[in-house]
Amino acid sequence: MHLILVFMVCLLIHARGAKDLPEQRAPYWNKLGQDELKKALGVIPNTNVAKNVILFLGDGMGPSTVTAARILKGQKMGNLGEETVLSFENFNAVALSKTYNTDRQVADSAGTATAYLCGVKSKYGVMGVDDRVRRGNCASESGAAVDSILKWSEDEGKSTGIVTTARITHATPGAAYSHTADRDWEDDSKLPANATSCKDIALQLIENGKDIEVLLGGGRANFIPKSENDPEYPAIQGRRLNSTNLIELWQRLKVQENKRHQYVWNQTGFDSVKANDVDYLLGLFEPSHMQFEVDRLNNTIEVAGEPSIAEMTKTAIEILQKNDKGYFLLVEGGRIDHGHHQTKAVRALEDTVAFDAAVEMATTMTNTNETLIIVTADHSHVFTMGGYPSRGNPIFGITDTDSQPATDNMPYTTLTYGNGIGYKPLDYPTTGRENLTGVKTDSINYIQQSAVPLSYETHGGEDVAIYAHGPMAHLFYGVHEQSYIAHVMAYASCVGVNKDHCIASPTASPNNPCKTNGASRYSVHTTVMLFTVTLLISFLA
Fold first, then answer.
1. Pairing between strand 327-333 and 159-167?
2. What phi and psi values does residue 30 have, to the nearest 5 degrees?
3. 140 flagged as catalytic
């Protein structure tokens, strides 16, 4: 009886493998290869003007994060996972971005944001300023400010928006509107006593960012005085030393300007927004960062409720697309980075999958003839995936083959970190690596094992990918300095300083994708020639 049972189990395993692995035979791979080749041969460079530009920034979304998230997405759908495609992996153009800061081999998010938003690389820890600034030195800000693609777009009459799951004053969004010698100066309580001529980032948002139509993210406390309590968490007070409530100031300014506006701080308020009735939207959903995706729908953690990144992206586009001149939108999946810093891969990858859903939402809502969508990362993490697990092995699981056993004869996970708090858990101070037998490694709070003990896992220094589709996406074609991204966005949408290729066209119509700012379009013939010359130079180099 025992032998029969074992035989039946073996048959079931064999049958499952045969069902789950249809691509083992040659015809499958030959057809797949030919289909991809046919698609590639049919690609024609889109040389239209980008009426709209959407930049999706996965904070810390390095190559290993993309791969692991791809597998997770597939496994959540009941598939093996490896064969799955993230929505942005269908984009025609793919390139690599070199992420270093001018003073650091491995970058932070402030210096990188200055690069891809302002077109200028800068130091670690500073935003919206060039390399002459010394971090933490207010006086060194003088003359160092550099404007971003957001400002360039506004100067051409376009609408602008920022969506983030981090604080709206954090490094990525902050570089779009602020100029500061220290990314930590998010509210006035963080300014040093001698920084009397410098303004905190939250105040700069209200002053410099007054024309930004959509602002959605976290960070309420940076806008509220210490004398006031948070509306969602009464035990938490604001952080500002100044008595001015910047949220109320934003509202008063919009009333004075006779602008249709709305401020929201929870899911109910967000759901009440009617895009046709609102031209300016401010949504601050947490005192600090928004919730991780795995916590967002947990009503014991998130009582008031808050929208997903896909929902925020949808509402932002609905508001911004009312402008006939187009828009620029920055969308950041900010908590991918935070999950990695905590060496909690489940949190990081679930947020990456949610980020992918936002990209898919934008792709569905926009026209590729007139909207350039770029997906990239500011930097990577020391996050690795290895160990020769079998095909379809749970991405958060134990490596299930013995082709490369650990020398300590203990199990290990497919996902690990090069450094971080998982080096030796506190309950294993002397016995070496934790024995993971029976450990639930797919728990949302499981801490992956790390090679080097640090209190906080670090960024990784390898290049990150750039994915693009839409007008001028083909200009991403090789390995670029990260600052190149801003220059392509500006060139594609005819904003900023390089507009020589934009030719006045008084007959351009609203339905003509080759239209910018109501009065100009590309010389398509010239652009195609330039692209051809660029490819030839690249080939001969």
1. parallel
2. -65, -45
3. no
Alpha-carbon span 310 to 330, nearest angstrom = 13
- Whether 100 has a pLDDT exceeding 50, the answer reads yes
- Give the DSSP per-residue string, 249-305: HHHHHHHHTT--EEEE-SHHHHHT--GGG-SEEEEE-SSSSPPPHHHHT-TTT-SS-
Classify strands 502-504 and 520-522 as parallel, antiparallel or unpaired. Answer: antiparallel
| Residue in 314, 256, 255 with CA at minimum distance from that of residue 283 | 314
The per-residue pLDDT for range 283-306, each reduced to its tens digit, is 999 999 999 999 998 988 888 999
Element (H or E) spanning 72, and its range? helix 63-76
Q: Nearest CA to 488 among 519, 424, 534, 455?
A: 534
Output the CA angle 414-420-421, nearest 5 degrees. Answer: 100
Give the separation between CA 242 and CA 246, rounded to whole angstroms. Answer: 10
20: Cα separation from own chain's centroid? 33
Residue 454 has pLDDT above 60, yes or no: yes
Token pair of 127 as six digits: 């935003």
Q: What is the pLDDT of residue 20?
A: 52
Residue 431 exposure: Cα atoms within 13 Å on the Cβ side: 7
Q: Which residue has the tokens 């600034």?
A: 133
Single-letter code of the amino acid located at 469: H
Tell me the per-residue pLDDT of 221-230, one tens digit each, with 9 for 90 and over.
Answer: 999 999 999 9
| Alpha helices per DSSP H over 90-226 | 109-118, 149-155, 171-174, 201-208
- DSSP strand E in 426-538: where? 450-453, 459-460, 464-469, 479-481, 502-504, 520-522
- Dist. CA 360–CA 308, nearest whole Å: 13
Q: Which of 109, 159, 450, 505 is catalytic?
A: 109
Sort 325 into a burial class: Cβ within 10 Å, 0-12 / 13-18 / 19+: middle
Buried/exposed 4-25: b ≥16 CB within 10 Å, e otherwise: eeeeeeeeeeeeeeeeeeeeee
Q: Is 461 exposed, middle or buried (0-12, 13-18, 19+ CB in 10 A)?
A: middle
Q: How far is CA 116 from CA 65, 164, 200, 307, 380, in A?
A: 20, 16, 22, 27, 15
This prediction's pTM:
0.90
37-to-26, 40, 95 alpha-carbon distances in Å: 16, 5, 19
